[in-house]
């Protein structure tokens, strides 16, 4: 499936907007104690994105989505600033939540919840991960302890959740819980008095409003109409969301590393040491050359995985491979950018140090590298057993 001229034109518009309008906001002081942009700042940028015609660019006016390959060329450009995805409404977890609702939600759920998200009026949160000290689900979703059961005409949900990105200030929540039938998903309006924030930890990353909260859910009552899809199908719906969401992270952070490479290259070409520009020293120039190679490799990996998803496949294996390859490559790229810039690279004078921090976190969320490798190794063993007639 080819990438349309329309998608490239839209990507160009997004890039022009991010470079001209969003990047100046990187020095805006409207941040919380953790350094994340405050909602006032987000809404101000989104108003300008709406005016420029680049708000939620991956979802077309008729509600259909760009293909995954087309989404990639747009989301990479939106990631050229850590604020770009927030401004253009292509950020996590909202982009993944919009994708899930668009594919699984009923017309009523789309009208009640999805519409305000697509319009950029509401942030959302995906409530799946649970606290380790509670013995709940992390990388292993089968350990889920949050429960839901029917009580008359309602479902009642009880449990705990942790690392819930963007919860503080979100207006839409997708809650996963375990019933007798299996895992279920529910759409809820936020805030809700039945869901309380225990604490919001300080974390290495700082690009996402609302932090990564730990929550307690106590007797949250929701109507059956707020269930996403069918009871017991929650894990299947999670895969509908997670495979493209992993890839979307790769897209956005590739954009950030492209920008970090630009900044480091500019520094290396301007800065003089030992009688010549830094880039003329092989130790520096070769790092930037290695970055250029790995940036291109990451782009090709994203495009390959996107093409698989565009065939209608869930692409679980492909998205795992892309998540591992791209996140690890981007970590090396960000690290080299810091190294090239020396002392300046570890300051907040540029976004390079933030990109380094954000990519370090990216290696963990949506499945750490080791979990994806473990899953791939299990598949290799299954294939071997099948080939040997042992399956």
UniProtKB/TrEMBL annotation:
<feature type="domain" description="Acyl-CoA oxidase/dehydrogenase middle">
    <location>
        <begin position="125"/>
        <end position="198"/>
    </location>
</feature>
<comment type="similarity">
    <text>Belongs to the acyl-CoA dehydrogenase family.</text>
</comment>
<dbReference type="InterPro" id="IPR009100">
    <property type="entry name" value="AcylCoA_DH/oxidase_NM_dom_sf"/>
</dbReference>
<protein>
    <submittedName>
        <fullName>Putative acyl-CoA dehydrogenase</fullName>
    </submittedName>
</protein>
<dbReference type="GO" id="GO:0003995">
    <property type="term" value="F:acyl-CoA dehydrogenase activity"/>
</dbReference>
<keyword id="KW-0274">FAD</keyword>
<dbReference type="InterPro" id="IPR046373">
    <property type="entry name" value="Acyl-CoA_Oxase/DH_mid-dom_sf"/>
</dbReference>
<feature type="domain" description="Acyl-CoA dehydrogenase/oxidase C-terminal">
    <location>
        <begin position="232"/>
        <end position="379"/>
    </location>
</feature>
<dbReference type="Pfam" id="PF02770">
    <property type="entry name" value="Acyl-CoA_dh_M"/>
</dbReference>
<dbReference type="InterPro" id="IPR050741">
    <property type="entry name" value="Acyl-CoA_dehydrogenase"/>
</dbReference>
<keyword id="KW-0560">Oxidoreductase</keyword>
<dbReference type="InterPro" id="IPR006091">
    <property type="entry name" value="Acyl-CoA_Oxase/DH_mid-dom"/>
</dbReference>
<keyword id="KW-0285">Flavoprotein</keyword>
<dbReference type="InterPro" id="IPR037069">
    <property type="entry name" value="AcylCoA_DH/ox_N_sf"/>
</dbReference>
<dbReference type="InterPro" id="IPR009075">
    <property type="entry name" value="AcylCo_DH/oxidase_C"/>
</dbReference>
<dbReference type="Pfam" id="PF00441">
    <property type="entry name" value="Acyl-CoA_dh_1"/>
</dbReference>
<dbReference type="GO" id="GO:0033539">
    <property type="term" value="P:fatty acid beta-oxidation using acyl-CoA dehydrogenase"/>
</dbReference>
<dbReference type="InterPro" id="IPR036250">
    <property type="entry name" value="AcylCo_DH-like_C"/>
</dbReference>
<dbReference type="GO" id="GO:0050660">
    <property type="term" value="F:flavin adenine dinucleotide binding"/>
</dbReference>
<dbReference type="GO" id="GO:0005737">
    <property type="term" value="C:cytoplasm"/>
</dbReference>
